[in-house]
Amino acid sequence: MLKINTKQVDTIMVLSLRGRVDVTTVNELREAVKKLSEEGYKNFVFDMGRIDFIDSIGLGALVTCLRIAVKNDGDVKLAKLQGHVRAIVEITRLHKLFDIFEDVESAIKAY
Q1: Using CA atoms, how far apart are residues 102 and 22, in angstroms rounded to an integer?
Q2: Virtual CA dihedral for 106, 66, 94, 13, nearest 10 degrees?
Q3: N or C: lower Cβ tally within 10 Å for the chain?
Q4: Residue 85: what pLDDT?
Q5: Torsion angle of alpha carbons 34, 10, 16, 37, nearest 10°?
Q6: What is the extent of the structural domain holding 93?
């Protein structure tokens, strides 16, 4: 299960994610970003602090969300990566695609 809460900070949309980002939940994440993008949002911060599992399909969904944002001259920044989620992002070298921050506030300020 994946729970997504959204909060607008200036022109940035913060998505607080909780649960799993895997084959059973990735459509929720992709559709949320697609819908927000269609509403005019282009810069996103994903608060990953409460993600307890991510698989390869979930990693692919993060990249898809980044592509959606970049297509609209935006970006996706990741914040609060924990434990194995951080390790998987680093092992797969996705930290070279995404800007990663210790907290949401720092990610917002980076815009």
Answers
A1: 23
A2: 20
A3: N
A4: 95
A5: 0
A6: 2-109
CA atoms within a 13 Å half-sphere pointing along the CA-CB vector of 55: 7
In this structure, what is the dihedral angle of CA atoms 81, 37, 67, 6, given to the nearest 10 degrees? 10
Q: Could you tell me the pTM of the whole model?
A: 0.95
47 forms beta bridges with 16, 79
Tally Cβ neighbours within 10 Å of residue 73.
8
**Token pair 């994610």 in the structure block, residue:** 17
Q: What pLDDT score was predicted for residue 26?
A: 95
Domains in the chain, number: 1
- Amino acid found at 83: G
CATH of residue 91's domain is 3.30.750.24
* DSSP 8-class letter at 41: -
Secondary structure class of 78 (helix, strand, coil): strand
67: which 2 tokens? 């592509």
Residues of the chain with pLDDT under 70: none
For the chain, give the number of residues: 111
**Token pair of 10 as six digits:** 């200036």
